[in-house]
Design a protein that fits this description.
little secondary structure; 1 helix; 2 strands
Amino acid sequence: MIDLYNSTNGANWTTKTNWCSDKPLGEWYGVTTDADGHVIEIDLSRNNLVGKFLTASVI
């Protein structure tokens, strides 16, 4: 997740609430987790991401 942030210019995202923090992933802006805390969805549309996306197997 931190690699996604870094590779898409996260410092300049429109909204980046809790990214790169010690908060649970489900509290990071645009991230949805299941009851066990596993990421099941990332929605960062219209959030000024710039750069290359990593493959899902790397995230």
